[in-house]
Amino acid sequence: MADAQATGPILRLQGVQTHIGPYHILHGVSFEVPRGGVTMLLGRNGAGKTTTLRTIMGLWQASAGTVTFDGTDITRHSTPAIAQAGIAYVPENMSVFSDLTVAENMRLAARTGAIDERRLDWVFRMFPALKTFWQQRAGVLSGGQKQMLSVARAIIEPRQLLIVDEPTKGLAPAIIQNMIHVFRELKQTEVSILLVEQNFHMAKSVGDTVAVMDDGRTVHTGTMAALAEDESLQQKLLGLSLAAHQ
User: Fold this and answer.
1) Calpha distance 94→135 (Å, rounded)
2) What is the three-class DSSP state of 80?
3) How many other CB atoms are there within 10 angstroms of residue 171's CB atom?
4) With a cut of 50, which residues of the chain have pLDDT below it?
5) pTM attached to this predicted model
6) Cβ proximity of 9 and 35 under 8 Å
7) CA dist list (Å): 123 to 76, 119, 150, 153
8) Of 226, 222, 164, whose CA–CA distance to 191 is shortest?
9) Could you give all domains of the chain from N- to C-terminal order, each with its CATH number?
10) What is the pLDDT of residue 246?
């Protein structure tokens, strides 16, 4: 059993349904996140991608189906318990405290309040701007720098799974390229990543596997490379061609 758990997917969703008030948002979401790679969660606006992430994290409760993390059913677990189990979540709205310094933001993200200096040096190599603004209030950072801080907060301690919602939204091309470099470097560590992304150059550059959603359902799963090579499938699933987003 332990061997199967160590080699099976780090995350599995099976038939997940979610209601928010009177609205039925997810109608049966099923996909897996393999260990040690990047799984892209793609779909048109309103397909249910963010709801899926929030359901995984327990911020919204699934009304049916199961969410399994590292062999354990976490469908009914609280958000703090899910985070404690080894999942870090970076929401779309940049999870930073504007009135606190960059240093204080990072210390709050460390569960013990103490930051491992070697790991901090590693984070600084990926995000040198954070070292520059270390004692500055996070509110003075640019949008791209705040997004860097959001990701840095999530990885300041080792995690088994990193869930990120649209990290390049609204960012300049140069910052997007830096994010691609960061996620490629993260792939060299032991963390598994589930990434919602609308920038398809980013998706193609870092994704290993992909799940595509439409109208609250999973409509396609496979490798990112296969989707990137099939323009007709891209048009069918996403209504666009990746070739137009190079």
Assistant:
1) 19
2) helix
3) 20
4) 1-4, 245-246
5) 0.91
6) yes
7) 33, 6, 12, 9
8) 164
9) 2-92+153-245 (3.40.50.300)
10) 47
